[in-house]
Design a protein that fits this description.
Number of helices: 19
Shape: globular
Strand content: 15-25%
Radius of gyration: 25 Å
Structural class: alpha+beta
Cofactor: Zn(2+)
Enzyme class: transferase
InterPro entries: Ins_P5_2-kin (IPR009286), IP5_2-K_N_lobe (IPR043001)
GO molecular function, one term: inositol-1,3,4,5,6-pentakisphosphate 2-kinase activity
Helix content: 25-40%
EC number: 2.7.1.158
Largest sheet: 8 strands, antiparallel
Length: about 550
């Protein structure tokens, strides 16, 4: 049986089914009666269509030496291309990891990337529910779910590239010395993946007249930008209505040894829309970057951590960073960093990207303390939370357990989408725009830096094909004109798994408990020294 290329792109599952029947007849074979459930059959056809549409390139073992370690998160390695092939210049590769615990079977792929309950949850996204691979599922989730919500200009879903096991084995060997030791101990490259995700390298510019202009990129993981006010938050965790999740989580990370200093960063500042508060947020991220703030120069990391959290910014780090910026930010000695941070703050405010992100984060309007009840209804398990509550406390959650299945599915789906939005990053890139660079667009705003009497004009500039947004900043000073190109992207838009709901609930309890313990300890120390305790509440 063969499906035409345009059939794969244009036909619905039903039409594909009819086409298969017709093709069988044309080939002289008897149309077969399938014993599979029709819906499952349609999903299988869709899976074939997805794979054939996306596996457009194949990388061989020898190609692995042209990819170098860029960084990693909990689930993926990121490699950057250093070869000469025009196809891959300006690209990064995301490779899935799996636990290094000896459980070889845990890395094996299942016939379907989603569980039966997840297919029910995402039933409105046909392409997603038929995914046969987690990498395919993540790509389709970014494309069909997150891109419409965040805006196509800000989301690059990437494309899948087929790779053999030998390629993955050589990658594992090549990057192991660049990875943080604790990352190596925890996970390795998943050798059972048949594909990797190829994306544009958003830390560099790949269009226009590049010349010798350096490109500087700032990656920010903003975290949750609002205080939850859900009526399902219990009295025991009511502190969540006053303190940001980020601040409370800092206490747990400090307790577990993941960080050495509590960050002063407040996500509410970054999402506030206030120029002063946004600048404060950027400055606080610079002071304690952890895994929330990184800066690249021409694709190479010059500030922040590669595979995990970064050191707190001391004098030596700050001086080295200041020197690295001199080729991009023209300012008096010692002021390059300040000007960059101001430029980033102004760009964040003017772009409006965080308004979109906040709207998606706020799809979680019941908090995990509400969503977990909907989860138990969907799975038809006994609600272990309600089992421990008094009759009076149970009344708080009656409406959740009496909701329809569709409503329960909506609650959990919105919670998981919001969880992705709370954990994603965005990247802003700047490059001097020389004469001869092509572009289009119109000025939509300007930025004035009071400290240096410099004015930046904003232009939204769409360059090349695809949903790539770039903004042009024109810097005017003393009659000279310096132009900067800027682009803004969201990254790390991974699908959050329904099976993690109980883990999310337990982590939430642990975060609150650890923060409250820290406050009690502070109060105890404070009472002994007779100094008033100052808590940073977030309003």
């Amino acid at each position: 049986m063969k499906l035409l290329e345009n059939d794969k792109a244009q036909h619905s599952p039903k039409k594909i089914y009819n086409k298969v029947q017709q093709t069988q007849a044309d080939e002289g074979s008897e149309p077969q009666l399938l014993e599979l459930d029709t819906v499952v059959f349609f999903q299988c056809i869709l899976a074939v269509r997805q794979k054939s549409c996306r596996m457009e390139m194949i990388l061989r073992e020898k190609d692995a030496n042209e990819w170098v370690y860029r960084g990693e998160g909990a689930a993926n390695l990121v490699l950057a291309y250093t070869g000469s092939s025009p196809t891959f210049i300006g690209k990064v590769m995301r490779i899935r990891k799996c636990p290094r615990n000896g459980a070889e079977g845990m890395c094996m792929r299942s016939p379907s990337a989603l569980t039966a309950l997840e297919r029910l949850l995402w039933k409105d996204v046909d392409e997603l529910i038929s995914s046969s691979d987690n990498e395919i599922a993540c790509q389709l989730f970014a494309h069909h779910v997150m891109k419409p919500l965040l805006g196509p200009k800000y989301v690059d879903a990437g494309m899948l590239v087929e790779v053999p096991r030998e390629f993955l084995e050589l990658v594992e060997k090549n990057v192991i010395r660049q990875r943080p030791a604790w990352r190596v101990d925890n996970a390795r490259v998943d050798m059972h993946r048949g594909s990797v995700l190829l994306m544009s390298d958003h830390s560099v510019f790949t269009h226009g007249n590049l010349g010798s202009s350096p490109c500087i990129s700032v990656e920010i993981k903003p975290k949750c930008g609002f205080i939850p006010l859900s009526r399902f938050i219990s009295e025991g965790t009511a502190i969540k209505r006053r303190i940001t999740r980020f601040q409370m989580h800092q206490a747990l990370k400090l307790h577990q040894g993941e960080i050495s200093l509590l960050s002063k960063y407040n996500p509410l500042d970054l999402f506030s829309g206030s120029k002063e508060r946004i600048y404060k947020a950027i400055k606080d991220l610079f002071t304690t970057p952890q895994n929330n703030f990184r800066v690249f120069m021409n694709g190479s990391l010059i500030f922040g951590g590669l595979g995990g959290g970064a050191e707190d910014t001391n004098f030596g780090i700050a001086k080295a960073f200041e020197n690295a910026l001199k080729s991009v930010i023209q300012a008096d000695n010692g002021l390059c960093t300040e000007n960059l941070l101001t430029l980033v703050a102004e760009a964040v405010k003017k772009s409006g990207v965080l308004d979109r992100l906040l709207d998606v984060q706020k799809l979680d309007n019941v908090d995990i303390e509400g969503a977990i009840h909907a989860y138990y209804d969907i799975t038809r398990q006994q609600c272990i939370i309600c089992r421990e509550l008094s009759e009076e406390q149970l009344k708080r959650y009656t409406s959740l357990h009496s909701a329809s299945l569709d409503e329960s599915l909506r609650i959990v789906k919105d919670y998981l989408i919001a969880a992705t939005a709370k954990d994603c990053s965005f990247m802003i890139c700047f490059r001097q725009r020389k004469a001869g660079d092509s572009g289009s667009g119109s000025i939509c705003s300007n930025i004035y830096l009071e400290s240096t009497k410099q004015t930046f004009d904003f232009k939204l500039l769409l360059v090349g094909s695809g949903p790539h947004l770039r903004m042009m900043l024109i810097f005017k000073s003393l009659g000279a004109v310096k132009k900067l190109l800027q682009k803004v992207y969201f990254i790390d838009l991974d699908l959050k798994r329904m099976s993690k709901m109980e883990e999310y609930y337990e982590l939430d309890k642990k975060i609150v408990s650890c923060y409250e313990e820290m406050i009690k300890m502070d109060q105890g120390i404070n009472s002994q020294t007779c100094k008033p305790l100052k808590l940073r509440t977030e309003f």
